[in-house]
Amino acid sequence: MAVWKRAALPAAFGERHAATLPGLLGIEMVEVGADFARATMPVDERHIQPAGILHGGASVVLAETLGSYCGVLALEEGWTVVGLEVNANHLAPVFKGDRVEAVCRPLQLGRSVQVWQIEIRRGDGRLTCVSRLTTVVRETRGA
């Protein structure tokens, strides 16, 4: 059963985020299914910490970006979401040169609060990060 109330256009995601942090980090929306969305991010010099592995903060940016995007898609026009809390458990390293893929699914789609789970996997399929994003639903300003 589809959870989306707005059309999901991966190309529009790229255009909207081109000059923002997700665009600067190379986050790309690749698929929106009936109850999930999938995005990817390269792991290059923009994303690593001094030990040469993916910085945990980059994983959190990917998770919050994807969860927030899904939050908006799950709402009627005139409504948006803002992040209330995000957490992340980093389970395995990702090395420079790899690419990560994130899949986001809803855990709760309430009238005032949404909860999203995001799993991030590295190129070999190993789970590297599990994140949960809680958002607050707000009426869009000026609507």
Automatic annotation (TrEMBL):
Keyword annotations of the record: Hydrolase
A Pfam entry, by short name: 4HBT
Ranges for domain Thioesterase: 52-129
N-terminal signal peptide: none
InterPro entries in the record: HotDog_dom_sf, PAAI_dom, Thioestr_dom
Stored SUPFAM superfamilies: Thioesterase/thiol ester dehydrase-isomerase
Superkingdom, taxonomy of origin: Bacteria
Family membership noted in the UniProt record: Belongs to the thioesterase PaaI family.
Protein's name according to its UniProt entry: Thioesterase domain-containing protein
Species, as recorded: Paracraurococcus ruber
